[in-house]
Specification:
heterodimer; A: mainly alpha; B: 12 helices; globular
Amino acid sequence: MLKQRSLFWIYFKKNRLAIAGASTISAIFLMAIFAHLIAPYDPGETDIATKLAPPSFKHLLGTDQLGRDVFSRMLYGSRVSLSVGFVAVSISLFIGIIVGSIAGYYGKIVDSVLMRFVDIMMCFPAFFLMLTIIALLGPKIHHVMIVIGATSWMGTARFVRAEFLSLRERDFVQAAKVLGISDKRIIFRHMLPNALAPVFVTATIDMATAILIEASLSFLGFGVQPPAPSWGNILTEGRIYIFDAWWLTLFPGLAILITVLSFNLLGEGLRDALDPRLREEGIK
Amino acid sequence: MTKYIIGRLLQTIPILIGITIISFAIIHLAPGTPIGLTLNPKASPKIIEQMKKNYDLDKPLPVQYWLWLKRLFTGKLYSFKDGKPVLKKIAERLPATLLLNLVAMLIIFSLAIPLGVFSAVRRYSFLDNLCTFGAYLGISIPSFWLAYLLILGTVKLFGYPVLGMRSFAIEELTVVEFILDRWWHLMLPSIILAVGGIAVISRYTRSSMLEVIRQDYIRTAKAKGLSEDDVYYKHALRNALLPIVTIFGFLIPGLISGSVIIETVFAWPGIGRLAYQAVLARDYSVVMTILTISSGLTLLGNLAADILYAVVDPRIRY
């Protein structure tokens, strides 16, 4: 086990893009946690006299149409974007792990029924489905989190199921069954820890997708509602002034891009480091 | 083979039924009635009853589902908003979306496959690393943001509007001018719609090609003295492209979801924009129909891809 872990680190550290992603994510998390200390202004504080001011030393990233400081708003916005991503991914992991492990552990009819349900869910155009449900429930931050989570668990379910199907045949699971340990305990205490590594990879990449989706929903007016600052919101409010105040469009978009890119790079780095086939080639 | 195709077709039926049930359930299990928002709050109980009756909302859910399904397939489903038949509304918008998606598809395949093959052949070269990073950028960039940057750039550079499907205030166009104008308006939205697909398919081609290159028969081909180009582009490429067929089905939901955003940004009169407008107007009969049709299309795309795969790859025997 220890050897596996150190091998993982050796390959992960070699991937400079993944390291860059991980460092950027840590920096963004720190900025989000300490937003109230770093932000030079209150994110809701309006000052009409300095509205639509270009970036300067006083306002690092300029001001918006109400004279609010864009830098401060973006710092607070990172809290919204990250927490939407985090909660949505947690929900999707929860559903995906439950569905996948039950399908993989019990097999047969349970498996077919659950996997047909996964097939059905995967046919829907995800983004349009989310848009519809949020329109029905009303655009609130927790609805956005729940809907993103509830419509993106299918990949995790398939991964976990595949892992469980192979784990099920292993001796330690057979032994646990013979000892009469309850199914619940076998699934969650004995099998799940062995299936978690690929789940973390999908979770990282799902985080990227969730942040991107939140921004797109905000863009269409179904995300987190103004005046609460989210990156998608700032961008959407700013697009009317695109020809006069480019900084309102450029900076939030850049923030989304960098964050999503970092999560994707980290996720792919983790996947490569966990993939034994790629490791073999690295040794050659 | 026939047995496989029939079996595969039979498998699709329960999934198709599941799709219609879920589309129906989503709209009807949400709080509030579908007509709640279209009615004047002062409407008398009598009018509300009448409205409910018109839309079958007074009947039990399974009956409603059955009626809805029957209407959907006989084209008797009407928009809540303007009373037009839903299928007609969709059919009117279909050509614009098809044109946009077809061009995007062409861009995707003509760029992604050469890029992927090139990356695999020159693995770990500077250009391969550049393609890798480009692909990450492609899947990470918010499409609406890219759209605004490109609109800003194009309009500043050429001073010519890019929104919509054609230019306004120009009534009489010759055929050539019409085609040029259409291409001008198609350019940006189709490129942006293609970005994600290029990123995904080029990576997929790359790994598929790498998989083939390490096979024994490629080593044999090299050993018997064939040129590198012959080995890669004649022997390896054919086999590497086989799995790409299956990706075709997966592309459809992405393109439909992408159309919602991109058609909205570019005021492109297609199904994506219709879908967004229907969501905004709470026009649920249109929303449900689009959800069902696009999921059905995805299902058929997957089915076609699977069958095609079995046809083109003689190694696959079910």
